[in-house]
Amino acid sequence: SHLQRIEDGVLDEAVDPSNPLVESYATEFELSKGIPKNLEAMLLRCAMSETMPGLLQSLLSCCPPNTVDKQPTDIYSDAILLASEQLRNPENRLHDVFDVMTPEEVLERILRQVLEESEDVFVGDMVLDLLRPFCLDSSVAIHVRLKVLEILEKSVSLSSEDENLLLLLQVQTLIWSEWPDYELDECTTLDADTRQAMFDELLQRCSTLSGFVVLGKLLQCGDPLESTSQADPETNPWTRLIGQLLLICDGKAALDAAERLFLDAIKNCNLNLACCRHIFGELQKKDSLIHILRSFLQTDHAQLHNDAIAILRVVDQVSKSDYDETVLNRILQ
Questions:
Q1: Closest by alpha carbon to 67, among 103, 105, 41, 95?
Q2: What pTM does this model have?
Q3: What is the mean pLDDT of residues 315-321?
């Protein structure tokens, strides 16, 4: 009987039989009547939707001999391929699991589970081999492939080729949101020189606030460019970017964007004092005390803190619009 192994306690040894989840699978196991197709459907659903340690292995061990000739990694592989196929064909529901979880959520769950349960050091390579063709398929929307690669990046060690593809998709998504006519082939290797040339060209073309924001995000894709360590404001991409933004764009939105870009620059490459001082001077021309104080009191440069406080001291009258809680907290520190 296909129930004999449950009756023998094989399932009970690995998991708590009183758990309602386990009971539901025991019932489904009974209804399967030992038919391989039914058993495999049950195992596939378990692989995609459950996180109980050992449950899939336990259910698999209960299957009668010669019914399911698979290991847990085989079941997980089937589940990964099904989730990727659902992403490829979102208009068709391929499994009822996708009624309650997105394919991306299913993938994340499977990867966590398979990496936790498997003792095989090559399981990460197996996952990459399964999903690489999907990520390379240019017929699939960029944002979908990018999401899958980002899930993989959090879970496994990417090869240099996979890392380049991830970076390329990130860059394509950013650039095409603002410059859809920009030519960027998926065979492009995004080395430092290529990324620098790309930034230089787009900065020259840029004339909108949203474009400058995109270029700031572009500078944060991948390792910081070597030029971000330049002390000369004329060659440092961050000072060039913020300076150009303040030259072309006006108003509070432009000042807010310049402030955010400045703080991004500090985090991204620990922007040097000379470049910080240059941006300080550009912001002074805009005569917005709150943006000067909020920006430069958050740097690690004590000299800039002193410069910001010095400006505050010579202001005849400070209004509520000239400071906020961030500024007050930094001054009190």
A1: 41
A2: 0.77
A3: 56
Q: How many structural domains compose the chain?
A: 1
Mean per-residue pLDDT, 10-26: 61
Structural domain includes residue 15:
no
User: Which residue in the block uniquely carries the two structure tokens 């406080």?
Assistant: 309
Under the banding of pLDDT at 50, 70 and 90, the label for residue 118 is confident
Cβ atoms 124, 157 nearer than 8 A = yes
Residue ranges making up the domain that contains 307: 181-332
Q: Does 131 map to a domain?
A: no
Is 251 inside a domain boundary? yes
276-295 in b/e form (b: 16+ CB < 10 A) is: bbbbbebbeeeebbbbbbbb
Q: Is 43 exposed, middle or buried (0-12, 13-18, 19+ CB in 10 A)?
A: buried
Token couple for 247? 């030259």
Q: What is the mean pLDDT of residues 244-250?
A: 96
